[in-house]
Structures are given as structure tokens and as C-alpha cells.
Design brief:
- There is one protein chain.
- The chain has helices at about 25, 45-60, 70-80, 150-160, 205-215, 225-230, 260-270; strands at about 5, 10, 30-40, 40, 85-95, 110-115, 125-135, 165-170, 175, 180-185, 190-195, 220, 235-240, 245-250, 255.
- It is α+β, with helices and mostly antiparallel strands.
- The protein has 2 domains: about 5-115, D-amino Acid Aminotransferase, Chain A, domain 1, CATH 3.30.470.10; about 125-270, Alpha-Beta Barrel (D-amino Acid Aminotransferase, Chain A, domain 2), CATH 3.20.10.
- The longest helix has 15 residues, at about 45-60.
- It is globular, with a radius of gyration of 19 Å.
């Protein structure tokens, strides 16, 4: 049976404790991280934990975190996921408390799960979402449990025959996809929405920007419009589980396999096997 770690205890999934008044469950007041593990090694775990800590600070949450890296390793071992790919999910739910109070309740939960993760395809399809991301939201840039708007938009895209959807923000600038960060390739360089767009400061996004600079591929974080999307030579998305995934079709436009996308994907694959990067 699958085991999970919660508040210092190892539990069967069927024994997971959650209060019916937990604000993470009823209000979406929670945070999470999704971490890829390959052959038992969590990838860029330190970066994920640093982002989680920064997000906790934004919400005013102060909690004594155990050695989560060591717990990830135990979790992988207990669930026999030392070979192949696995998805680790680390989450905090705020527990019970007043609606107008962000503080963690005495019964808040900090837990972690691990399940097998399939190899992601190299490409996907996407449309432009009819809904906008609010770059001025107090949740902008947080890896927050309040994820329903992304799921609604993704379901809408699926009904139209697409696998992903791309958000603009309220000013009409490109922001991100429902589940990933967004990159364009134009004239041999890469472009990605600035964090001011309201997009998530993705871990793989940051790694790809670093790799591009190491490879002398021009890289710019900037304001981008739908016109840039239509004019791009390549489009790809980034996420921790899928790494770099090319977009082979954007709405009615087909895009050829991306040379820059492939080069950066190969560099990412090398980077995750460097000592100290797990």
C-alpha cells in the first residue's frame, strides 16, 4: 500500500488525517511543490524547498521544517520508487482558523506523497485561454493550492481538442500556461514572460534561463503579446515533471520540431545528472 509522510508520521494513504474545517481544503489556503525524482534522486530539491520557504514567508507562515530532503529519500524508498521516474508532492494546508486570519492553525498539515511518473511526450498542443491571469493578485507568483481557475481553463482547452492553454494577464501580455511556464524562440534566441507578468517563478524556468546563458543562446525576460506568440519560430513550456516540452500546434498553426528547444532539453538532461543538482 502507498505510504505518505505527514507531520512526522508515516501513514497509509487511507489514514490521512484532515479536518473538515481545514482552510486548505475548503478555501484553498495552502502551498505545494511538485518535484521530479529520477532513479531515486529528487531533482533540484533544494531549489524547490527554497521556493516553498519563500512562499511561506509571503503568507507569514513560520513553521519548524524537519529535514525534508531526507524525508523525500525515505518516501522514495518506502514506496519502492528507486528506479525510473517519480512525482513527489510536498504540501502545506493551513488548518482550521478564522476566515480573516492567514495564520497556520494548530492542526495545519505538512505532508508528502510520491507516485510513479510517466515519461512526458516531447510535444503538446495549446490554445489561447479566454480567461486572464491577474498579475496584481496577492497570490500571483505563489505555488498555491488555489488552483481551480487553472483546471477550469485546462478543461475548456481539452474540450476544444488541445492539451494545454496559454494565459494572458489583465494587461494583454503573455503570462504562462495552465500548468507550466512559457518560452518562445525567435531568431535563435529565447523569450519568456517577465515575472511581473504574474507567472510562477518556475524551477525549470530558472534552470533553462541559466542553461541558455551558459550555451550563449540569447535569452530575454520581457513583456510579450499574442502577436509574439503567433510570430515565434518555436514555442515550448517548462515544468518540473515535463522538463521542456515543445508545442507542436498552437491553435490552428502547426510548428516544426524545435532545434533550440531540443538543444535546451538535452542540456537540462545533462544538468540533472551533475553532482549536487539532485
Amino acid at each position: 500500500m502507498t505510504q505518505l509522510w505527514c507531520n512526522g508520521q508515516w501513514l497509509d494513504a487511507s489514514d490521512f488525517p484532515v479536518s473538515p474545517t481545514d482552510r486548505g481544503m475548503i478555501l484553498g489556503l495552502g502551498l505545494f511543490e511538485t518535484i521530479l525524482a529520477i532513479d531515486g534522486v529528487p531533482i533540484f530539491a533544494e531549489r524547490h524547498l527554497a521556493r516553498l520557504q519563500a512562499n511561506c514567508q509571503r503568507l507569514g507562515w513560520h513553521l519548524d521544517q524537519p529535514d525534508l530532503t531526507a524525508i523525500m529519500q525515505q518516501l522514495i524508498d518506502r514506496n519502492e520508487l528507486t528506479t525510473g521516474r517519480a512525482r513527489i508532492r510536498l504540501a502545506i494546508s493551513s488548518g482550521s482558523g478564522p476566515v480573516n486570519d492567514l495564520a497556520l492553525g494548530a492542526n495545519y498539515l505538512l505532508w508528502m506523497t510520491a507516485v510513479p511518473a510517466a515519461v512526458a511526450p516531447l510535444t503538446t498542443t495549446a490554445n489561447l485561454s479566454p480567461w486572464a491571469k491577474n498579475e496584481r493578485s496577492p497570490l500571483a507568483g505563489l505555488k498555491c493550492a488555489s488552483y481551480a481557475e487553472n483546471i477550469v481553463a485546462l478543461a475548456h482547452a481539452t474540450r476544444l481538442g488541445f492539451e494545454e492553454t496559454i494565459f494572458l494577464n489583465t494587461t494583454g501580455q503573455l503570462c504562462e500556461t495552465a500548468t507550466a511556464n512559457l518560452f518562445l524562440v525567435k531568431n535563435g534566441g529565447i523569450l519568456t514572460p517577465h515575472l511581473n507578468s504574474g507567472c510562477l517563478p518556475g524551477i525549470t524556468r530558472a534552470v533553462v534561463i541559466e542553461l541558455a546563458r551558459q550555451l550563449a543562446i540569447p535569452c530575454q525576460e520581457c513583456d510579450l503579446t499574442p502577436a509574439d506568440l503567433h510570430a515565434a519560430d518555436e514555442i515550448f513550456l517548462t515544468s518540473s515533471i515535463r522538463s521542456l516540452m515543445g508545442i507542436s500546434q498552437f491553435e490552428q498553426r502547426n510548428l516544426p520540431p524545435g532545434v533550440i528547444t531540443g538543444t535546451l532539453r538535452d542540456a537540462w538532461t545533462l544538468a540533472i545528472h551533475q553532482p549536487g543538482d539532485g
